[in-house]
Amino acid sequence: MSQIAQLSEAEIEERFHIAGTRPVAFMLAGFAKENEQFSVMFQAGQEMFLTTLLAVKPDKGLFIFDCSGSAETNRKLLGSEKNIFVGRPGGIRVQFTTGAVSEVVYTGSKAFSVALPKFVVRLQRRDFFRIATPRAKPLQFFGRLPGGASLKFSLHDISVAGAGVTAEKPPDGLASGQALENCHFPLPGDDRDLFFDATLNHMSEHEARSGVRHWRLGLAFKKLPVNDENRIQRYIGRLERERHELA
Hints:
By secondary structure, this protein is of the alpha+beta class. The chain has 4 helices and 16 strands. It is elongated.
């Protein structure tokens, strides 16, 4: 049995899913910029062709990809209601599912557009995207529930799309899908905290080897400015360099 097959759905979501319109759009835009190729499979896997992501339109909630060279294949794709994209950008397996596509004209040529997927699955080397934060002296996350109750958790990982935190027990009133405003935590090496709004994507209970139970909460950043994304990238880079030096 594979390692992934042994995980619960909540663990798979926490470890491999990139969810939310902004994080998904950010990731796909990067693939489009690098002209990454994906296989698109449809009609229950009976049809497939190789395509390239061309552009992402986050304001419209869609992305654009290249047509097949076959008019018949393109016609069949237009009649498909479920399409699976699979690629290996940077050697990392990436997969996502979309609904029906539409034909558009992009930079003077025929192309397809489709709504952004709800999530993207990255099945390998995810630590290059989401990195674990120090355990010995964990960063402290602060926030508030909509009703005003304060929150304080320890961070266990971070990416430009969001952060994971650990709680001994979630406070009453906290639920998946909830919006959290005025959140912040310090970024070592910076002279000011990172401030942001977030959405609580998921909550899952875990048991340590010692038998102690705790909760993992996944937070997605909302409308994080590019400057703050760069601050997170610099922090991730510092952590990676430090860990390589100690290895």
